[in-house]
Design brief:
Layout (H helix, E strand, L loop, with lengths): L3 E5 L3 H13 L4 E5 L2 H13 L6 E4 L15 H11 L4 E6 L4 H9 L5 E4 L4 H13 L4 E2 L1 H11 L5 H11 L7 H7 L7 H14 L5 H10 L4
Parallel strand pairs: 1-2, 1-3, 3-4, 4-5, 5-6
Helix pairs in contact: 2-3, 7-9, 7-10
């Protein structure tokens, strides 16, 4: 089993819970940090001292407080760490639903395990630790279901209105007015952004131009 593990998690109770899970598996050499910048520093220092970490367990979203940070979230942290220690194992433990993003990171060997904070997440984390230690990839069962559901997503009428507005060059900030004039709901800017992010995640697109091109090629708009 892993000998040396770093936990990047900004919620103290979740941090303690992860440590307890590691201890149950006999992993005693653990360090936990609340900030992504600190995690990168600990990884760098361990490499310098010739005692690198075997595994990083990290959340995705870190709350913004009064302590300025260069690395804003777990995705950026993983990418930064992989530059200096490409062979470190990585397990993401998060409540965030970013299946599309994480699936792409599996493809590029940036992530080894993905566990959602939910019922039975302690058991799923143990399963992820065992799988990752034996060079196998792991997604907790509820995440597999979410990803399958997302991939079966069908474009709604609202989705197509949003894509059409993008195609016509209407700025996102003006889209709520356009939808309200046509009595299309929901019409808030946050709802539009959520639908856009979901559509791009489902199709593994990185920008709006790819989404518009896809809809044009498939005669959706």
């Amino acid at each position: 089993m892993f000998k040396k593990v770093l936990i990047a998690e900004d919620h103290e109770i979740a941090n303690i819970s992860v440590q307890k899970t590691l201890q149950d598996l006999g992993i005693q050499d653990t360090k936990y940090v609340y900030y992504c910048d600190h995690a990168l520093t600990w990884i760098r220092n361990a490499l310098r001292d010739g005692e690198p970490y075997d595994l990083l367990i990290t959340d995705i979203e870190f709350e913004d407080d009064d302590s300025p940070q260069q690395i804003a979230d777990g995705i950026e942290l993983i990418k930064a760490i992989k530059v200096i220690q490409p062979d470190i194992k990585v397990i993401i433990l998060t409540a965030n639903d970013l299946s599309g993003t994480i699936n792409q990171m599996f493809k590029t060997n940036e992530v080894d395990g993905f566990v959602r904070k939910a019922r039975r997440d302690g058991q799923h984390l143990k399963e992820a630790l065992h799988a990752t230690y034996h060079n196998k990839r792991y997604q907790s069962p509820d995440l597999k279901k979410i990803f399958q559901e997302k991939n079966s997503h069908e474009f709604t009428s609202l989705d197509l209105h949003i894509v059409k507005m993008l195609y016509e060059g209407i700025p996102q900030k003006n889209m709520p007015d356009y939808l309200q004039q046509r009595d299309i709901k929901p019409s808030s800017l946050s709802s539009i952004e959520k639908r856009l992010n979901l559509m791009k995640e489902v199709q593994n697109f990185t920008n709006n131009e790819q989404l518009v091109a896809y809809c044009r090629e498939n005669n959706l708009i």
